[in-house]
Amino acid sequence: PLLKQIKNSAESHIVLDCSTERIYEVLKQAQQIGMMSDYHSYLITSLDLHTINLDEFKYGGTNITAFRLVDPENPEVAQAIHNWTIGEARLGKKVDFKTAAETALMYDAVHLFAKALHDLDTSQQIDIHPLSCDTQDTWPHGYSLINYMKIVEMRGLTDVIKFDHQGFRSDFVLDIVELGPQGLRKSGTWNSTSGVNFTRTYGEQQKEIVEILQNKTLIVTTILSAPYCMRKDSAEKLTGNSQFEGYAIDLIHEISKILGFNYTIRLAPDGRYGSHNKETGEWDGMIKELLEQRADLAIADLTITFDREQVVDFTMPFMNLGISVLYRKPVKQPPNLFSFLSPLSLDVWIYMATAYLGVSVLLFILARFTPYEWPTPNPCDPHPEKLQTQFTLMNCMWFAIGSLMQQGCDFLPK
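Below the sequence we write its predicted C-alpha cells.
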C-alpha cells in the first residue's frame, strides 16, 4: 500500500531507509508495480548494498545510489577475506564472506584496541588487579587506555581510523556507488571536510548515457505545426513515423542515428503545446504527456517559459525570438600624430610642462648661487681666472627630463 501511495503521488525521488535484509524485497515490490523505470531514483542509506544481489535491477535504467564504507577492491580488505576463508577452510567450513560494514567495523575495533593496549603496555607497567562487578571500583589504567585509543591513528578495512578529542571518528570516507549494467560502480566519495567529490568525468557520464540509449525505443510527443511537423501527402495509407515530415521529424531522426535509439512519434491528444491551469494545478498538451510519463521527450516549436522550466527540462533552443537593439558599428579612425597625448587631458599636460620648466629654471638659478657647482676647469691650475659650471639652462632641462623619465644623467648636483 505504501509503494502504491508513492506511485500515485507521482514522486520519483525516493530515499530508502531500511535494514539491509529488506532492501531486495522492497525493490522487488517496487519493480512489480512499475516503480523501477528510468524516471525513478533511489537513494539507499544502507552501507551494505554491495552485499546484495542486484542483477535483476541492473538493466532497468533506474538510478540507484548508495554509500559504501568498505571497498571490496581494497587490497587490505581482500587480504582479510582471504585470511578468513583460509581459517574457515582449516575447520572444514566453506563460507562466502561478504564485507559488511558491521563486520569491518568490528575487525577494526579489535585491532584498534589491541594497538592501543600494546602502546599503553610499552609506555608503562600494567598491573592486573581483580575487580568485582558489584563494586564501584575501576581499573586504574582504564582512562589511559581510552586516551591511547583516541590518539592512535591506523589504517584498517574502513580506511584511515582516527578520532577527535571527543572520541568520535573523524576524516572517514564514504564511497558513492551507483548501479549500472556492469553492477555497482564507484562514482565519487564523501568526507566530512570537503563534502562530495565526484570522480567520474563528463566523458564517462556521456558514454554511459549513450550505452543506456542503445536500441531503446523512446516515445516522442509533438503536435502538427508547419514546417516542424506535418502529415505527408500520399495516395497510400501511411502509418507510424512514416506519416509525418518536417524539421522536427528530420531532427529526431538524425539524433536517433547518432545515439543509436529507436523512437515512436505520437501526437498530443489535445493538440496543445502545454499550459498550466493555476486553479487546478494541472498541465495540458505535450507538457502533460511528459509529466504523466506517457512520452519520453517532446520535440516541437515549444517556447521556453518560466512555468514550463519548473516542471520539465529544455535542451538548447534551435531558434531565438525577441527584441534586439541595433546600432552602427564604429569605424576605426586612423591614428593622429598627437594620439600619444590621449591618455591624459590637456590640463594635465599643461601642468606637467609648467612643473618641468619651473624645476629646470629653479635648478639653473640655484646652481648659479651655490659655490659647489663652480669647480676648477683645470685641476693643474689651482687659481684660475674663470670658473665653469655644468648646469647651464639646457643641462638643467636635460637633468629634469632624465629624472622625470627615471633614466638618470651624466652629471648630478652637488
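The mean pLDDT is 86.
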